[in-house]
Amino acid sequence: MNTALWIAAGLLAAAFLVTGILKLTQPKEKIRESLGWVDDFSPRQVKAIGAVEVLGAIGLIVPGITGVAPVLVPIAALGLALVMIGAAVTHIRRGEVPLVIVNLVLFAMASFVAWGRFGSYPL
């Protein structure tokens, strides 16, 4: 089970690191080309979402590898699960229902990591 939790955390970290860096480094107009939902948010809010995603990605991996504050791993996973709830609500409100499937998959993975690391398989 520990291996499955590490794989899920690694996949989540990769996904959120890439999307978070994109949101932090690209102007809103450039992001709009591939992510239409940014029209519903200010540039500052988009950057904040990107920062949360990058911090969550770091929180999924670094504490577990270093052994420093490993309780941050399930907290980061829980935080990213909450981000996915917000993303799903945004996509539903915009009528982008197919994108909700991606949110649900990422939510399930983040919930799995949070459950495992808070529960029977702590680091």
Compute the average pLDDT. Answer: 95
Q: Helical segment tally?
A: 5
Quaternary structure state of the chains depicted: single chain
The tally of strands reads 0
Series of secondary-structure elements, N-terminal to C-terminal? HHHHH
Radius of gyration: 15 Å
Helical/strand content category = mainly alpha
Question: How many domain modules?
Answer: 1
Q: What coarse outline follows from CA principal-axis ratios?
A: globular
Q: Please give the alpha-carbon distance between the first and last residues.
A: 12 Å
Low-confidence stretches: none
The amount of beta strand, in percent, is under 5%
Biggest β-sheet description:
none
What is the gist of this entry?
79% of the residues lie in helices and 0% in strands. By secondary structure, the chain is mostly helical.
Polypeptide structure, described:
By secondary structure, the protein is mainly alpha-helical. It is 79% helix and 0% strand. It has one domain.
Summarize this structure as a short list of keywords or feature phrases.
mainly alpha; 5 helices
Describe how the helices and strands are arranged.
Blueprint: H1 2-25, H2 28-32, H3 43-66, H4 72-93, H5 97-118
Helix pairs in contact: 1-3, 1-5, 3-4, 4-5
